[in-house]
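User: Fold this; tokens only.

Assistant: Input:
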Amino acid sequence: MNSRRPIIALAGVGVIIVAVLTFVPYSLTMVKRAGNNVAAAVQTSLGKEASPAFEAEMRRPIVPQYDVALWYGARGEEPERHGVLIQTLAGERVFASHNADTTFNPASLAKLTVTILALKKLGPDYRFNTRVYSDGKVDASGVLDGNLYLAGNDPSFGDASANVIAKELRARGVKRVKGRILAAPGFSFNFNERAEQSAEYAARVMQFKQSATGMEEAKGEELFALDSNPLREILLYMNAHSNNFVADRLGAFLGGPQLIVRFLVEELKLPPEQVSLETASGLYNNRMTPRGVLVVLKALLEEAARHGLKAEDLMPVVGCDWGTVRRRMEGTGFECSLVGKTGTLTTTDGGMSNLAGVVFTKNSEPILFAILAQGNRIWEHKQMADQLLAETINGHQPAPIIDAKTRRQLLPPNNLKVSSKQ
């Protein structure tokens, strides 16, 4: 027997191992290039162009190694009741993907669809108009001998707006209203659906000692108008507080849930079978996928940039702003470094707890995420979503958007404007 053969064999194995270890890093760097060149190779071999759909499929990111199903299973959760997609803005890197194309109830994440359509159709500086009418005259003592009317469809009209109107009336010499203070159909005060009650509550704030309140079409002379906060501030408030009234009123103003769905399908190219909206606010029965939510988020960022706006101009800063995201991501190190929108239902579909938004880091492009959880363990699911997001993007250095001590004022009253009648 040749005693050198084992040594030679071992040396050969060692050479092979060194070659493999040398080649692996290089091969890994080539995976993306290879994937991107597959369509071109097929085109060459067939002698014709590959279809756009085929090229898009070939360029889809590789499924990440982060096992979301295992992560949820280890916490006593049924993985099929969760949907997750976390990836970079361009989609070139996917941090986590689980049931990304499965439909779930988006709950108040539906408000993001209202946000982008309102911004696109109306523009960030659009203001709702509340007109003030009177059918009487003001005497020398400051008594309005007649009725006062409030007419408009501002979904954000509240105490601050009523106070500005009262101040303007007093500046015009009105101290008391002898008749009634009436609201025209469609007028709302502090998110109240009923115009009659809205007139009553607004009159309490204005304090003109009127004889009665109620609902009636406006008539008489238009005295002046009150312009609401700009739309961008209304959208930020709506998303921060997840205000259903504002979302539904805006949705109706834009054409209703079906028009919003048409926009999502025709313009954002969401598959028709993967999107359904019963309401603009996200109440009741609605359906979207985690991937669909990210498509909306990306389109919203692009539309905002087109108007010179940033993500935080339309969505609250998680862990910093007042509202539903105030206590989210605490202790993760990512507080105030992302903007987001919550979506919560307590009974519909057995309960939903969702979070979606954009993470800003110092060593990566923005990271989009959508984490949807079905079930009545809402508090636990909120904590799990924060933990999963933090673990998935661990290693990326947070880039705070605003100081942790900053508390932005939403719907600042000094941005309301009085305008003379046209």
